[in-house]
Hints:
This protein is an all-alpha fold and 79 residues long. 87% of the residues lie in helices and 0% in strands. The chain has helices spanning 3-32, 36-40, 45-78.
Amino acid sequence: MPTGRLAVWWVxxxxxxxxxxLLVAYIMNRIGHxxxxxxxxxxxTWLGATNTLVLLSSSLSAVLAHQAQxxxxxxxxxx
Length: 79
């Protein structure tokens, strides 16, 4: 197996282990503390929606910037 491919698999597996552990810790914490549901009822929905909109907008901006750069580099290579 080439070194680059092994490195990519190493990163993928390590991300799964790290985020899997965090998810299990979150679930165990939520199961252990039943008052979590009471506190979640006080969540500001508009603030969460605004945060989601900002994150989606920034992701779209990054994708469009990458696409524009790819087009410009391809155009420069043809000239």
